[in-house]
Amino acid sequence: MAVVGRILAVLIGYCFGMVLMGYFIGKSKNIDLTKVGSGNLGSTNTMRNLGVAAGLITLAWDCFKCVIAVFFIWLTFGRFVENVNIYMVYAGLGCVLGHDFPCYLHFKGGKGVASTLGFIIALFPMGIPIPAVVFIGLVALTRYVSLGSIIGELSFAIEIIVAACLGLLSEKYPGGQLKEVVIICCIVSALSIALHHANIGRLLNGTENKFSFHPETRA
After folding, report:
1. What domain range includes position 180?
2. What letters, b where the CB count within 10 A reaches 16 and e where it falls short, cover 162-189?
3. What is the spatial distance between Cα 113 and Cα 204, in angstroms, rounded to a whole number?
4. What is the pLDDT of residues 13-28, one digit of tens each?
5. Is 200 part of any domain?
6. What pTM was estimated for this model as a whole?
7. Would you state the pLDDT for residue 1?
């Protein structure tokens, strides 16, 4: 069950993750978000092009679909395995992968920020404050959502590594499972940072868009 269960958990998480709310809201308004703004299907581009309500709905779903995927694994796997926690982490990974690389959209989805938030809420709720403060603080100071996201993701990875070194996760993830968890958390963070490569370039060039609650006007 160990290997097969991990693969199955990733696939189940992927199915939840590849439901991108921004894409479907855009389609309902005859707008293809992959062709406007940044071309991203996350909440920021949705808000910029479809308005605050659409952006907040997208943010909420992209976040909590990871919570739902993890809960589903707990509900179904919990009765068959000794320690369901590790499978829940793999489901969280799958959800982030589904969000970032949905197969029906040629593997071009979001950047995984909201789904990573859901990953943290579902699996490491005590780890929320530091990335949240980093993200909110940087966005408030600079109005660059991308900068807050990148540094927030990095802070989460560092936080998990420190927690593992201090033995704070050993009881929940015994033996070799702890190493798997640290690797997965670092992959989730690294993926989101890597998918911000264009934003990083614009930040360095001083051409990155600043956050605004007002939808962009289109010709």
Report:
1. 2-205
2. ebbeeeebeeebeeebbebbbebbeebb
3. 20
4. 999 999 999 999 999 9
5. yes
6. 0.90
7. 60
